[in-house]
Amino acid sequence: MTGPYIICVGNVVRDEVFHVDKLPSAGLKTDVLHYEERFGGPAATAAVAIAHLGGRAAYWGRIGKDAAGESVIGALTRHNVDSSGVAVIPASRTTRAVVTVDRRGERSIMIDRLGLPRETNLLPPKLPDDASVVLVDTRWPAGAAAALDYAKNKRIPSVLDADGGAREEIARLVDKADYIIFSSQGMTEFAGEGTPIDQLRRLAHLAPRTLAVTCGAEGSVWSIRNEITMVSAFKVAVRDTTGCGDVFHGAYALALGEGQSPLESARFASATAALKASRGDGWEGMPDRQSVLEILFRENVE
User: Fold this and answer.
1) C-beta of residue 59 within 8 angstroms of C-beta of residue 82
2) Which among 94, 55, 98, 54 has a CA at the least distance from the CA of 75?
3) Domain that holds residue 216
4) What's the domain count of the chain?
5) For residue 101, what are the β-bridge partners?
6) Could you say which of 69, 208, 272, 284 would form a disulfide bridge with 63 (CB–CB 3.0 to 4.6 Å)?
7) Predicted TM-score of the model (pTM)
8) What distance in Å separates the CA atoms of residue 38 and residue 36, rounded to the nearest whole number?
9) Whole-angstrom Cα distance, residue 168 to residue 182?
10) Hey, which residues does 207 pair with through a beta bridge?
């Protein structure tokens, strides 16, 4: 591959996925329609998305010395993601999650992050010379902070996937990143209640950095040099929304690495995430480049 080289730093997760008719309420039993085991995690999923879109991707993170960790490395390799920056930690367990998905594609996730140390920097000593962009998630703060420092020292763009965590930790990462993309929940935890526009305006002091909040089927809202812009979501028949935000961030980082503008990158990311929602199927359902270009072309024609 000859595309931009994106380094993705953060979590990888071994998922157990239960498909149900409706998401269960407290105290009720629910029959499972379909069960599958697959992989997730913000940074790792972003890396897989990048590889399927034609970029070069590396995943830097942590796994336990266990069967789940071995299967994760095998899956990353199958999807052409460089996993040489993954630290294997003895006497620890790879992060796992239980995911429940209903017929509409909405999901509920329970994650066990207790098996790995959070405050230890286990990254390789430096970025590769040909790295184009660094993308980090917030679920491994020590690794994310170190990777953002690497990017700053190398003067390459950095993208922060701000999807929740302790506010103090997020604030430290926000101070280091160039492009900061919050989930709706992450933005509310960081900036308080309100509309996405109100929340972004509260963060006006962070300019000239690019800020955004993703809002699922309602699209995303962007603050670029303190100018607010809405990017609409692409309409698709949703099968499963699991991992769509992670795919969005990966596609965004890749587009930046290719030289697209922040808003062009946002549209590219939105199209990629929409296709992922229509396909489901975990990492196996990643859109390829041609499919994304086709949906972008159709939208422009219409």
Assistant:
1) yes
2) 94
3) 5-22+30-301
4) 1
5) 19, 107
6) 69
7) 0.90
8) 6
9) 15
10) none
Q: Give how far Cα 219 sits from Cα of 6, 159, 239, 272, Å.
A: 24, 19, 17, 12
Domain containing 238 — which CATH number? 3.40.1190.20
Tell me, letter by letter, the H, E, C secondary structure of the chain: CCCCEEEEEECCEEEEEEECCCCCCCCCCCCCCEEEEEEECHHHHHHHHHHHCCCEEEEEEEEECCHHHHHHHHHHHHCCEECCCCEEECCCCCCEEEEEECCCCCEEEEEECCCCCCCCCCCCCCCCCCEEEEEEECCCHHHHHHHHHHHHHHCCCEEEEECCCCHHHHHHHHHHCCEEEEEHHHHHHHHCCCCHHHHHHHCHHHCCCEEEEECHHHCEEEEECCEEEEECCCCCCCCCCCCHHHHHHHHHHHHHHCCCCHHHHHHHHHHHHHHHHHHCCHHHHCCCHHHHHHHHHHHHHC
Q: Is 29 exposed, middle or buried (0-12, 13-18, 19+ CB in 10 A)?
A: exposed
**Can you tell me which residue has the tokens 């990888």?**
12
| Confidence at residue 266, expressed as pLDDT on a 0 to 100 scale | 97
User: What pLDDT does 38 receive?
Assistant: 87
Residue with tokens 């993170």: 61
Ranges of residues in the chain whose predicted pLDDT is under 70: 1, 300-302
User: What pLDDT does 116 receive?
Assistant: 80
Extract the tokens encoding 227.
Answer: 């100018």
Length of the chain, in residues = 302
| Cis peptide bond prior to 208, omega within 30° of 0 | yes
Q: Which two tokens stand for residue 203?
A: 């963060």
